[in-house]
Structures are given as structure tokens and as C-alpha cells.
Design brief:
six-stranded antiparallel beta barrel; 6 strands; Thrombin, subunit H; mainly beta; 129 residues
Length: 129
């Protein structure tokens, strides 16, 4: 059986990034100490979405509120996102992690310009290489 060639479906270039994210499931305390915000990591990012490393798996369509702590930005960027896919990232043990693809569906208006400037700067850096 012949393998199908890889076809990129993304509209925008994703940038590898090493940054923190806090996530919250609307209306649900999800940590052991009843906190609503739980930390994770941002693996990559673009104008329209991100790949996150989280300690919980969510089904496609699930809505997550995110605080993105981006390098060189003093305050977190607040976005609402929709889970598109999720798969195991490490071993299937007690401390399992999940790679989770999200689509950004809403950005806090006060954060929108800062987010766009950050992505634009990353794009310019990539083009100059």
C-alpha cells in the first residue's frame, strides 16, 4: 500500500515557542485544590491556533479559556479556544501529558493588537533567516 504524501492544511505558519499557558474549563474546577486555572506549555503558535502540552485530555469541540504567557510580553494574552484534537504526548502512566491542538475563537480586545504584533514579529524573524 502506497503512503499518501503529507499535505499541509494550515493557513498560517506555526512558530515553535517555549512558553507557559494557564487553561480553564468554563464553569469547572479542574485541579485537585479546586483552582480553575491549570498550567501547561505552549509548543507552537500561529495567528489562528496553537499546540499545547496539557495534563488532561479534552475531546474535540471542548472550549478552553487560555492565558498565554508569551516571551517579551509583560502581561498574559487572554483567548478563548476550541479543542480540535488531542493525543498522548508521553508514556501512558499516572503523569501522562497530552498534545492538544486548539483553534483560537476569541481574543480579549485589549490583547488583540499585542498578540498580532507578537506573531508578526515572529513571521518577520522567520522570513529573514
Amino acid at each position: 500500500m502506497q503512503k499518501k504524501p503529507f499535505v499541509e492544511r494550515r493557513k498560517y505558519i506555526r512558530f515553535m515557542i517555549d512558553a507557559r499557558v494557564n487553561f480553564e474549563v468554563e464553569g469547572k474546577a479542574i485541579s485537585e485544590n479546586n483552582e480553575r486555572k491549570v498550567p501547561g506549555l505552549i509548543k507552537n503558535l500561529c495567528f489562528e491556533g496553537a499546540c499545547l502540552i496539557l495534563d488532561e485530555q479534552f475531546p474535540p469541540g471542548h472550549i478552553l479559556k487560555l492565558e498565554l504567557f508569551l516571551p517579551s510580553i509583560s502581561e498574559p494574552i487572554h483567548v478563548q479556544s476550541e479543542v480540535r484534537w488531542s493525543r498522548p504526548y508521553m508514556n501512558q502512566d499516572v503523569n501522562s501529558m497530552y498534545e492538544t491542538g486548539v483553534k483560537i475563537i476569541n481574543i480579549n480586545p485589549k490583547d488583540q493588537a499585542v498578540f498580532i504584533d507578537f506573531i508578526r514579529e515572529k513571521l518577520l524573524q522567520a522570513m529573514s533567516k
